[in-house]
Amino acid sequence: MLTASTLILLATLAGYALLCAIRPFAVCRTCSGTGLREARKGMKLCRRCRGTRYRLRAGRRLRNHARRVHTEGTCTRPTTDKERLPWQ
Ligand SMILES: [Zn+2]
């Protein structure tokens, strides 16, 4: 039987996954969405978001990585640019 805290945790994770699916980008926390940061000689582009003002959410980054690993692991197309290993 699931306890109430487990249900709350699962609901929170499901909500975050839904948020990452609907809105994968969030406002950059370093520059607060301005795309600029203060430097000694005036303003410079924010290094974290490279001036785009948005960052990829951690959950979406994790999903993209998992999707990439799955795609590369199940790819059945022959690779012509790589040297084939003896067991392939
Ligand atoms: Zn930024």
Q: What do these coordinates show?
A:
This protein is of the alpha+beta class and 88 residues long. The protein has a domain at 18-73. Helices cover 40% and strands 16% of the residues. It has two helices and four strands. Strands 1-4 form a two-stranded antiparallel sheet. It has a two-stranded antiparallel ribbon with strand order 2-3. The radius of gyration is 20 Å and the shape is flat. The model has no long low-confidence stretch (mean pLDDT 89). Bound molecules: zinc ion. The site of zinc ion has 7 residues, from loops.
Please name the defining characteristics of this protein.
single chain; 88 residues; alpha+beta; two-stranded antiparallel ribbon; two-stranded antiparallel sheet; flat; binds zinc ion
| Structural class based on helices, strands and sheet pairing | alpha+beta
Q: What is the helix/strand order? A: HEEEEH
Q: What is the molecular shape?
A: flat
Rg over alpha carbons: 20 Å
Helical stretch tally: 2
Total strands: the figure is 4
Summed up:
This protein has 88 residues and is of the alpha+beta class.
Describe the protein's topology:
Blueprint: H1 4-22, E1 25-27, E2 36-39, E3 42-45, E4 54-56, H2 58-73
Antiparallel strand pairs: 1-4, 2-3
Bound molecules: zinc ion.
Residues 28, 30-31, 35, 46, 48-49 line the site of zinc ion (ZN).
